[in-house]
Write a structure and sequence with these properties.
Length: 230
Amino acid sequence: MLTLEKLAAGSPSYGSTWVSTSKLQVTNKFSSTAIEYIQSHCNNDINSGIAYWYFTYNDEEKQSVSNFLRSFISQICGQKPDTPGELYDCFCSHAYGTHQPGLTDLLKMLSQVIHGFDNVFLIVDALDECPKLDSERSMLLDTLFEITQLLQPSVHLLVTSRREGDIQEGLKDVIENANCLPSINVQGGLVQNDIEVFIQERLKHRSFRRWPDEMRVKAAMTLSKQACGM
């Protein structure tokens, strides 16, 4: 079974992981927890780096595959003592920043900034929030496949998404290419207790203080039942 401890320890058996869920809130909570845990590990290890990206349906800037790669490059580069010379060469070859690099160049730069770390953790949250419009989601799945092509033993990839047909199909090649891509289905009994705790905590908020105890109990039971572990 995959644990955050194994992921943060850089176990070679867990180079890539896919977490799927039926509800976005659970996905975001899982990825946030994973990021916090791995960040605490990286803060104590200068030879480890982390980069993460949240695809967001209501923010066009966070729906772009190009922006996602740029962010990864920037985050990882910011954790290195010096800027790799290859990045400056790429900057010069694109008219000193006046021309924008394509996905192929961005993938090469990502590979270059990763070099030198003992462990690098790449986390991509909510693949399903990347739009299908203009084939952006298709480009994302192709890019994830290319990232697994570039994967070095030091790189660990975690992706999260709701289960959608095109994503499941697109990840088949990623799974085969990564050799080992554990899939965790976050729903059902695995999360029902967490959902109940979350509801109970929310109902303690001051905005519900005027609700009679009986009403709060009924609301908690109804919401928990309707969640169905999702």
